[in-house]
Structures are given as C-alpha cells and as structure tokens.
Amino acid sequence: MKRISYVLIAIALIVGVGLPIAGCIPEPIPWQWVKLNGPYGSNPATLIIDPIEPETIFFGIDGGGVYKSIDGGNTWKSINTGLTTPIILCMAIDSLNPQTLYAGTIGEGMFKTTNGGETWESINEGLESEHIWSVVIDPINPQTIYAGSQFGVFKSTNGGDTWQASNEGIAMLDIWALAVDPTNPQTLYAGALWGEGGGGVFKSTDGGSTWEPSTFGLPEGFGIISLCIDPVDTQTIYAGTDGRGLFKSTNGGVAWNASEGVTSPYIRGITIDLITGIVYVASWDKVFKSTDKGVTWYSSNKGLTTTYTKTVAIDPTNPQTIYVGTWEGVFKSTDGGSNWEPRNKGLLLYASISPLGLAVDPVNPQTIYAGTFGGGIYKTTGGGKTWEAFNIGIDIAYLQCVVIDSTNPNILYVGTDGGGVFKTTDGGKTWEAFNDGLTNLYINHMAIDPCDPQVIYVATMGGGVFKSTQGGKRWRSMNEGLTSPWANVLAVDFTNPNTIYVGTWGGVFKSTDGGFNWEPISEGLPTINIRKALAIDPADPQTIYVGTDDGLFKSTDGGKNWTESSEGITDVNVHSIAIDPSNSQTIYVGTEKDGIFNSIDRGDTWRPMNEGLTDFKVRSLVIDPTNPQVVYAGTTSGVFKWSRVAD
C-alpha cells in the first residue's frame, strides 16, 4: 500500500512539473496593434503665418493633423482637438481675425477654429464633397470663403456655416488650387488637376458664379496644383503644374509662358513677398527664388537635408525670414533662403502610407517595403525597428503601390503618381523607370502573374489597364470592353492567371483571356466606383470581395452576382482587404475612418480589431506570408503591426 502511494506521488510530481498552481493560471498574452518605428517623414500640406503675430505659425500635415508654434518654429504642439482626421490638405487664416482658421481634409470635409486652433468644429452643411484640396478667404469680406474640391468649387458667405456649389463651368473638376485677386475679390482663379476635359486654369470675374478656361499656353492634359497672384501687379499670376514645371501669365490668365529657370516638373507651393516682390517656389527637387518677377531663377537649398519641399511661407514683417515645409519637417531661413535650419522640436513625423503601399518579402518577412506619399520607398530589414529610404533612381516622391516578384524577392515594382513604373533588381538599392508603351503614368495598382513573373498588369488613373510580358520592358494597352479609363485595383486568379479582375470607376470587370477582352460584372453592386479594394479567395477563386463607398460586397460565382457582406463593419468606405492564405475563413479589411475589422466566417460577420491602433485611416493591409497571425497595417501616420504585447 505504501509502495502504491509512493508511485502515485511520483506520477503527480512528474505530471505537475511546470504546471501552474490551481487558481494561478496565467492570462494569455494579449494581442494588439503596435506602431512600428517609422518610416519617418511628413507629407507637408500647408504653412500659415499669423499676419499680426508672425511668431505664430501653423503647419498642416497630410497624415499628422495640425501643429502650432508660437516661437517662430522653435517648438511645436499638436492642436487637433475636434479634428476627426489627421489628413490636412489645405489651410487659410482670416487676416482680419487670425484666431479664425479653416482646414480642408480628405474624407471629412472642412473644419474651422475661432480660437487659434485650440478646438475645431466641422462645417460641412451644403458641402457636397468630403475631399477639400484648397481653400481661400475673401481678403475684404472674410465671411466669404471658397473651397476647391473633387466636385468643383463651393462657396460660403457666412463664415462656413453653409455652403453652395459655385461651379458653372467646372462642376466635375478636381480643384487643387485657388487664388483670389486681393484688389478685386470678384476675380478668382482655379487650378484643376483632373476631371472631364482634363486639368488647367479657370477664371471667374463674378465671385465664382461662372468660370471660363484660361489655358492658352499651358501644356494640354497636365493638372494645376498651385496658384499665386502677385499682390502688387495682380495681372501677374503663377501656376504650378503636376509634371511640367512653372508657368506665368502677365495678362490676367489670357496667355501663359513657361518659366524656364525652374527645372523641377512638380511645383507644389508658390508665394510672393509683398514688400520686396521676391518669389519663392517649393518643388519636389528644391526651393527656387526669383528677385526679378520670375525672369530668372536660382535654387536656394543650403542646409536642407531633403529636396522634397511642398509649401513655403514668408514672415509678413520680415521678408528675410522664410519657412518651408518638407518631407523631413519644417526648415527656417533668416537670410532670405540662403541658409536653412530644421525647426522640428515637438513635431511627430511619420510617413503616410500609400493606398497599396506595403509589401512583405515572402522569403524573409523581416524585410518590409513601405511606399509613402511624399517620401518614396522605405525599407526595413528588422521587422520595422528601423527604416531607410531606398529612392536612388526614383524621381517622384508619391508612390501608389508596391509589388514583389515572389520567385525573386530582390525584384520589386512600384507604381507612382505621375512618374509611371519603376523596377529594382537589387532589393531597392537602385531603381529604373520602365515606362515604354505606357501612355498614362498615374499608376494606381499593379499585379504580377503568379505563374509567370514576366507578366505584369497595371491599373492607371485615366488610361485603363496596361500589360507587360517582358518584366515591364514594354507595355501595351488592354482596354477592350472597359467603359471607364479610371482603373483602380487589379487581382489575378492564382489558379488560372488568364482570369483577371479590375475595379474601376465604371464598376468591376473580368477578363478570362489575359486582359485582351473585358466584360462588366457589377450586377448587385450599389455603386460602380470601385476604389482600392479587390481580393480573390485563394482557396475558392470563385469567391471575390470588393470594397466600395457603400461597404464590402462578395461574389461566390466569379462575379456574376454580388451581395453585401458588411455586417459589423461600421464604416462603408472599405479601402483594403487581406485574406489569410492558410485559412481563407479569416479576412481583414481596412476602412476610411473606423480602422480595421476581422471576419472568421468568410465575411458573413465582422468585428472591430483596433486595440492599440491610434490612426483609424487604414490605407493598406498585408499578412506575413510565413506567419499569418502577423498582420501589417499602413495608415496615414505610419505602419502598425498586429502582435502580442510582449513581443
């Protein structure tokens, strides 16, 4: 009996080794989103100087919200209370009451502050666009404000309380730039980037009621992204283009001529000093300066550690003091631009990730690439601990998508916003443009044939779909059957690469012959605007998901019929979809303003998974190919990783 007792005790000791005592079972280590250490950078949108207190400066960042300095840029603080988005694209200050400012955003329309930015409120009544690219205030009557949007110009005559369309002549144009004549506020100029009939300059002489083209001498088909009127000689106007440099008119927009001394093709910011008449231009290459009204130009960049500049502002009381917003934050000059010093204390600068701008190396998942808005391509080899810019050969800072050749991870392609396709064969160390045959260089998305990596498809903004069978060396248009040239996202069937889907502004289309012919497959979809989300179930290629402005939709018959699959998703604007390759029951979606949602039943039901997420504007999602429990999210303020808290 005693021997049996000893045996039982021994067995109990063996079995119990390492087991917790009853009542002390440890909690499972929780999972949540953790912000990775980069990539660093800011996408500057606007710099505004208080005209009465020039030591007070406002810095609006696309992805970082609004910052304020009260000591000439020496220190900054975030002033985002009331703002429901960090994506600031434009700002304007009331020169008669500088405590009042307006901020235009992507996705949330217009905001206003009456206390110098301490608090903000939404002012969108009558504003039919959520995307505001530009805003100006009538210098004589500051209750009158104009907003440039994706649907033309809107006007308010009561300080933004209500808005009305002011669009005759430009109703369906993307207005990225506005300028009002300081001596005659009934005269305005609008710069269009895209829309029916293309871009260009438009002029109104009746306070925005009607608009007429003012494009003689401007390059046809190129958008206008910045405008500036000479405050002394208001017949002189400068227009910055999206790819063809700076243009100038000396007769109120009747005719335009190129400013040959400005060598950068992308002109983002223009300002003129009221006292001296000196003109400064912020471009993607450098800062330019002219002291003779734009006749001659020279660059002024000593001390700038980045050539990507987007916005420039002059101290109204001291023209020697200039500020410039760059990819690396704010720089200040106190000698008229001869020398620059960084002024970034207090600024939190993280890169805004592009819509389809994350890619994980399929062989070494610690290597991740991030395409950004404004900073080009970044790479980490340590799982996000440190990042490094890899842009040698890429001459454009705005990337839209990144794809990796699964058979050779050193080969990558990036699609840019206006620069076409770039390719690397050495893991991003050097890049080369591959645009032969591309008639449209605005690339929204790319997809590689899973069986033949020499076959690549690109979706373009305005040019439809192109295909290369030579690894990008040559491209040909593949648009037979497409009803819209605005192609946004592609997906190739892994089991049958001749089957391809494309989401366009005209709906979803399908090709079964490698892109030579397309047929519409939008039956059951409430909208034909398919933006950035399209995915094929890897286990069942007849099952497809698309993200729209009206929620997530699913087809189980190869696109013949669609049904809504959004139960539990609180934001209808779905921007990204990722399907677990090892278990396609598990799906993730990223939304415009409510973060990330997860489904474990093939999209029948969804739950939010935002623990630890501090930026809910999710642009891209990608799953670690070697560990599907690890997910990366690209947001407007950097990259997040879904991992255990203890990791």
SSE topology sketch:
Layout: H1 2-16, E1 31-35, E2 44-49, E3 57-61, E4 65-69, E5 77-78, E6 88-93, E7 101-105, E8 110-113, E9 121-122, E10 132-137, E11 145-149, E12 152-156, E13 164-165, E14 173-180, E15 188-195, E16 200-204, E17 212-213, E18 224-229, E19 237-241, E20 246-249, E21 257-258, E22 267-272, E23 279-283, E24 287-290, E25 298-299, E26 309-314, E27 322-326, E28 329-333, E29 341-342, E30 353-360, E31 368-372, E32 377-380, E33 388-389, E34 399-404, E35 412-416, E36 421-424, E37 432-433, E38 443-448, E39 456-460, E40 464-468, E41 476-477, E42 487-492, E43 500-504, E44 507-511, E45 519-520, E46 530-536, E47 544-548, E48 551-555, E49 563-564, E50 574-579, E51 587-591, E52 596-599, E53 607-608, E54 618-623, E55 631-635, E56 638-644
Short summary of the structure?
This protein is an all-beta fold. Helices cover 2% and strands 40% of the residues.
Please, could you describe this protein's structure?
- The chain is mainly beta.
- Helices cover 2% and strands 40% of the residues.
- Strands 1-56-55-54 form a four-stranded antiparallel sheet, with no helix packed on it.
- A hairpin with a 7-residue loop joins strand 12 and strand 13.
- The longest helix is centred in the N-terminal third of the chain and has 15 residues, at 2-16.
- It starts with a helix and ends with a strand.
Principal-axes geometry comes out as: globular
Strand order of the largest sheet: 1-56-55-54
Number of strands: 56
Helix content: under 10%
Structural class: mainly beta
Give the count of helical stretches: 1
Question: Roughly how many Å apart are the termini?
Answer: 50 Å
Major beta sheet, specifics? 4 strands, antiparallel
Spans where pLDDT lies below 50 across 5 or more residues: 1-26
Approximately how much beta-strand content do the residues carry? 35-45%
Overall radius of gyration: 26 Å
Mean pLDDT: 90
